[in-house]
């Protein structure tokens, strides 16, 4: 029998890892963890504020303070919990060596100090493998160019993100024509008849096909049967394909409290979500449509000209565009057009940055979170745990179009949500694949 590899590792964490997850130091099993002193300096800049990054920075500081209660941080101290390794704060070394990041890259930056701290540790611990862990791709590349092992923070990453498009719906061929006829007649049919040996998934959508006919359906966890899905219009918006019909059904289903709609730009994610919410306006006290603000060129919105409203308008404009599209289906003199204007004026319909609704109680609210791929798993969890009575939450986004520097298709909150909640009785997910914006937009998506 082969001996188990007993080489211990020391993981050196970058600031981006701490800001992604404050308890990341507890997720490296029996291996040791090093925190460069430069990371603590950078975290000091994040301790004030109400964003998730500020929360993570403060929580890490408290965690580190508790661990160091009876220890000096320049010594290796035990991490609490059975089977865990040790922790140490690494001092920056300005000793010039052949592998000095500041000299090689010609710039005094915190990133280079972090690399140098790891390189110093590598010399001090020759019998252990030192690995720099960072969410910053450029930092990892710089470390590897200096013969220092570097990798991404893997905890919470979704492994099967490439198959996410298949989640939420499935095409079932060779279904008996009589079964589909029964589905149309009785509005539901047994799962075994419709799916055969295929195991049904709660709120998963199925396109049933026989040699003669086809039907849209979903597995209803309440009746435990395959139920028929009708193509229905919502507030004047008609679904243009099966996936849009499924998305509308999920968002209109009162038994489903949480919905994730993924897909590329132009597939109608936000439009379907907004129209479905307006269709149910009488069932909720307010409709919130929010999106995270990702500053341009990594600069705060304070760099933009004008007052706070002027600064936020560029970020909120796509949401207003969808509302105007729905409103323009009717003339200004028609009831439906006036109704939308009244809802906005009375704040029954609120379009706002996501940061502005943090801390509010989400009771009797239909809540749409747009561009959710730019949220961390913790942010998604924070939003959902605010849900009160009669609250429905819809997350929309494209997991392959990330604007936040330290997130990717595997680690963002939307991917995490779909992966963890798929199959729950109050959750539904649909991927919209077909662009419906225009023929020109479709060609651009496919060929450019």
Automatic annotation (TrEMBL):
Matching Gene3D superfamilies: 5'-nuclease (3.40.50.1010), P-loop containing nucleotide triphosphate hydrolases (3.40.50.300)
GO cellular component: cytosol
Signal sequence, renumbered to the chain: none
Domain PIN: 9-141
GO molecular function terms noted in the UniProt entry: ATP binding
SMART domains noted in UniProt: PINc
Domain of life according to the entry: Bacteria
Keyword Nucleotide-binding: yes
Keywords: ATP-binding, Nucleotide-binding
Record-stated family: Belongs to the PhoH family. In the N-terminal section; belongs to the PINc/VapC protein family.
Protein name stated in the entry: PhoH-like ATPase
């Amino acid at each position: 029998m082969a001996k188990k590899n007993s080489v211990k590792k020391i993981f050196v964490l970058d600031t981006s890892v701490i800001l992604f997850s404050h308890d990341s130091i507890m997720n490296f099993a029996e291996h040791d963890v090093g925190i460069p002193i430069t990371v603590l300096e950078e975290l000091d800049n994040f301790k004030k504020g109400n964003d998730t990054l500020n929360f993570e920075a403060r929580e890490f500081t408290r965690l580190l303070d508790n661990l160091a209660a009876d220890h000096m941080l320049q010594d290796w101290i035990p991490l609490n919990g059975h089977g865990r390794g040790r922790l140490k704060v690494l001092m920056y070394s300005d000793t010039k060596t052949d592998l000095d990041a500041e000299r090689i890259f010609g710039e005094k930056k915190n990133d280079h100090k972090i690399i140098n701290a790891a390189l110093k540790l590598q010399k001090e611990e020759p019998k252990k493998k030192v690995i720099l862990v960072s969410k910053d791709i450029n930092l990892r590349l710089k470390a590897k160019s200096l013969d220092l092992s570097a990798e991404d923070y893997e905890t919470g990453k979704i492994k099967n993100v490439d198959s996410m498009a298949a989640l939420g719906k499935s095409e079932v061929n060779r279904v008996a024509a009589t079964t589909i006829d029964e589905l149309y007649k009785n509005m539901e049919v047994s799962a075994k008849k419709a799916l055969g040996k295929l195991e049904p998934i709660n709120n998963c959508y199925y396109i049933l096909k026989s040699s003669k006919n086809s039907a849209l359906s979903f597995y209803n966890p309440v009746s435990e049967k395959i139920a028929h899905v009708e193509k229905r219009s919502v507030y004047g918006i008609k679904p243009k394909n099966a996936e849009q019909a499924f998305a509308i059904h999920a968002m209109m289903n009162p038994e489903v409290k949480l919905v994730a709609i993924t897909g590329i730009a132009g597939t109608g994610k936000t439009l379907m979500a907004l129209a479905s919410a307006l269709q149910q306006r009488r069932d909720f006290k307010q409709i919130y449509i929010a999106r995270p603000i990702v500053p341009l060129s990594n600069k705060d919105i304070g760099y933009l000209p004008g007052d706070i409203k002027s600064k936020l308008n560029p970020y909120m404009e796509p949401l207003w565009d969808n509302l105007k599209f729905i409103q323009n289906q009717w003339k200004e003199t028609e009831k439906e057009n006036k109704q939308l204007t009244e809802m906005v004026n009375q704040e029954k319909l609120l379009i706002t940055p996501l940061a502005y609704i943090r801390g509010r109680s989400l009771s009797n609210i239909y809540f749409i979170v747009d561009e959710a791929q730019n949220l961390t798993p913790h942010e998604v969890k924070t939003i959902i745990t605010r849900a009160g009575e009669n609250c429905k939450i819809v997350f929309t986004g494209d997991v392959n179009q990330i604007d936040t520097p330290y997130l990717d298709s595997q680690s963002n909150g939307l991917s995490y949500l779909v992966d963890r909640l798929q199959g729950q009785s109050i959750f539904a997910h649909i991927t919209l694949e077909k662009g419906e914006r225009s023929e020109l937009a479709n060609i651009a998506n496919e060929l450019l």
